[in-house]
Amino acid sequence: MAELRCLLAVGRAALATALACTLAAAALAASAHAAAAGTRRAARARDAGPAQVLSSLRVSTELWATIDVCNPPHQRNTVGVRGSMPGDGQAHDAMFMRFRLQYMDLKLHRWVDLARADSGFLPVGSARMARQAGRSFVLYPPAGGAAFMLRGVVSFQWRRRSRVLAALSRATKAGHKSLAGADPPNYSAATCRLA
Q: Which of 28, 61, 88, 125 is found 20 to 30 A from 162 (Cα to Cα)?
């Protein structure tokens, strides 16, 4: 009877040891699988194609355009356009913005690009994180005192070397906070009326 108890004790100990080894092996395998999945996700993010990058950037709250200067007393006939764009998290990618002004054509009932009010694409920094930039335009209103309504359009590009990964545009809207340049401070508007 003592031998049987001893065998059962040894059997239980062996079973417990075997069970512990099995659980440890399973935990190790799960950990290795999770690490491999993380590596695959990082590789996908690093090598993301334009469609994947575009879909995540398009819905970002850090993607906006606003008018942050509209003919203030000490900057007469000046309209400032500011944009914000999210980074794609990749330090080796670069971000660019292009600032334009448009006026409302009352005969055509649509916005039209204003001649010579286009910055072209300007580099704004690494795509590692979100960036803001802006451009001011000094305008000379037409003779006769006619008032006209302006808005800004900011075009955004994320580039990897010479390849454009994603390109989006936003018309100016109110309610955004400029990190610099707003006059008066915290000014944000969708349009600017000049007379």
A: 61
Domain around 3:
1-47
Among 145, 140, 154, 157, residue whose Cα is nearest residue 101? 154
In the three-class reduction of DSSP (H, G, I as helix; E, B as strand; rest coil), residue 8 is classed as helix
pTM, 2 dp: 0.72
Q: Are residues 66 and 43 in the same domain?
A: no
Q: Are residues 80 and 176 in the same domain?
A: yes
Q: Are residues 38 and 65 in the same domain?
A: no
- Residues 75 and 41 both lie in one domain: no
Q: What phi-psi label fits residue 37: left (phi over 0), alpha (psi between -120 and 50 degrees) or beta?
A: alpha
Q: Where are the beta strands (DSSP E) in the chain?
A: 64-70, 78-85, 90-105, 110-127, 131-138, 148-160, 163-171, 191-194
Single-letter residue type at 133: A
Specify the number of domains making up the chain: 2
Q: Which residue is associated with the tokens 């194609």? A: 49
62 and 19, same domain (yes or no): no
Distances (CA, A) of 57 to 47, 51, 121: 15, 10, 18
